[in-house]
Amino acid sequence: APAAADAGEVAVRIHFGMSGSLHFDGATPRFGGASATPALALTFDGNRMLQAIGATAGLERSAAAARAKHAEGLRRDVCASVSHFSAGACAAAVRALPPETLVADAVLDQVVFPGAGNIIKNEALHRARIHPLRRTSSLRAEELERVVMEVRDFSIRWLR
Q1: What is the pLDDT at residue 140?
Q2: CB distance 107 to 151 below 8 Å
Q3: Whole-angstrom distance, CA of residue 52 vs CA of residue 92
Q4: How far apart are CA 71 and CA 53, in angstroms?
Q5: What is the pTM of this model?
Q6: How far apart are CA 146 and CA 85, in angstroms?
Q7: 116-148 as b/e, with b when 16 or more CB fall inside 10 Å?
Q8: How confident is the model at residue 1 (pLDDT cuts 50, 70, 90)?
Q9: What is the three-class DSSP state of 8?
Q10: Cα 124 to the chain's mean position, in Å?
């Protein structure tokens, strides 16, 4: 049972910003540069060190809850594999936003569409023929489905 496997386990959750990076043994990565204060620093046997720079880190009291939260986020990740992505999960996340939320803001909301950015928002809304200043509450089901699929399709094309 998952609860028994989770007994005593905790998880560290790290979220990297646009210029976030991992530093191993003090090495500076090829991009991003160094920051004064790491969000997380771990020292291992033999004085090996791992630092998360340009990130936020937190301790999750339940590893099972952290795994579930990760799996739910993966369902909305616009670049996730077909086996993980769920258009319905994205649509439900949009519907859960306050009704006055602008469609443009919903697309940029990283809880709703992890990975979507400004260029993706502009192109996807243009392709879906949805004005970015519309309220999410005004979208018909087929319009919302079109927005979700265009965000995903353009994100995948952009990634390639």
Answers
A1: 98
A2: yes
A3: 32
A4: 24
A5: 0.70
A6: 15
A7: beeebbebbbeebebebebebeebeeeebbbbb
A8: very low
A9: coil
A10: 18
